Amino acid sequence: MFKQLLLRLSKIVISTLKNGVDSKVNYVCRNLSKTQAAFSVNLPDFIKLLFSLLILIMMISPKKVNTTFKANLDSGFGVQANQRGGRFVNKDGSFNMRKEGLPLLERISFFSNLLELSWTQFFTFILLFYLLANVVFTLLYLAAGFNDLQGLISITTWGKIKEVFFFSTETFTTVGYGRVNPIGDGAHVISSLESMTGFLSFALVTGLLYGRFSRPRAYIAFSENALISPYKNGIALMFRMVPYKVNHDLTDARITISAVFMEMEEDKPIYKFYKLKLERERVDTFSMNWTVVHPIDEESPLSNFSKEDMKQSDLELYVQVNGFDSIFANMVMVRSSYTYEEIIFGAKFKPMYHESPDGNTTILELDKLNEFEKISLPES
To answer: How far is 310 from 316, CA to CA, in rounded Å?
Structure first.
């Protein structure tokens, strides 16, 4: 009988998971009553069993978001939970996706990829391209033969190969020192192609350098973590950001935050986006650090959420900031995100600016952007 009782209870758990969140408790109570009558379980043991099962179901069920808060249907992201992998937006602001289905050369943009490389990666790429191009043209000259070139003075084969390589570099850059020069038809054709390749390459590199220097971008750093901190008579979600480049302050800076939750709808897990109400959504001048605050009150979709609730709901915060940069004389925009793993309960940020010793300047310490201290939260 005990085996049959466990089997009956396991079926109740499985069936309950298929129901919507609101109907779980009623479903459990109704079926457990039938189970008690069928197996004659004594009342105290049955009550313990009932509460244990209810706790189990509540633990594995995503917390229901405040239904009075209207979801954002225009996020542009997919909502099907079984079709999404990982976070929606990476910490660096890029979208967490990989596009497939077309040939690689149709999907990638060499220009944009070269603009996104770090300066070290960019100059490494330029150097490797320069060396590779000259190695290829050196092999072509060698295929044409040493006799097609005039002015080679080395008597060893390796010495002549080195002279041909450096002749290639001089031709590629159109320097042309003059001691080695082509005399055969094959070498003339190769050197003509190399000269054209050289000045076209330098034109492209010049455009890339200009694009990298002049492209508008928001030089804003975000704190590594978002915090749940005391706020007025309650608590609030907070994170911090700062413009870290000298002179790249923003005018009329604006921020929007969307919270992403996994919810059950029509017995299926889906993701919903909610725009969070902020203490301040814009500032006239963004030159200091800005602590962004979302009060967690009865109107917040995060109301009564614990750390475990955020994990079960697979919470992610999608942040977007834009403003006018006077150096670029253009609007700039930056994105970032925080997952439930990057939200710390019971902490507050440490101050990151102070007065200079002479009292004439404000010192903004950028290295303190991520510094916080643990603190007790008020009891709800």
So the answer is: 9
Task: Between 22 and 182, name the one with better pLDDT.
Answer: 182
Q: Which residue has the higher pLDDT, 18 or 360?
A: 360
Q: Which amino acid is at 228?
A: I
Cα radius of gyration rounded to whole Å, the chain: 32
Instruction: State the residue for tokens 């077309």.
Output: 102
Give the angle subtended at the CA of 196 by the CAs of 194 and 200, to the nearest 5°. Answer: 115
Q: Which of 182, 198, 214 marks a domain boundary?
A: 214
Q: What is the pLDDT of residues 270-295, one digit of tens each?
A: 888 889 999 999 999 999 999 999 99
Q: What is the pLDDT of residue 18?
A: 40
Domain-located, residue 306: yes
Cα–Cα dist 42/51, whole Å: 15
Instruction: Please indicate, yes or no, whether residues 200 and 118 belong to a single structural domain of this protein.
Output: yes
Instruction: Judge whether 91 lies within some domain.
Output: no
Question: What DSSP state is assigned to residue 23?
Answer: G
DSSP 295-324: EESTTSTTTT--HHHHHHTT-EEEEEEEEE
Q: The domain containing residue 40 runs over which residues? A: 2-60
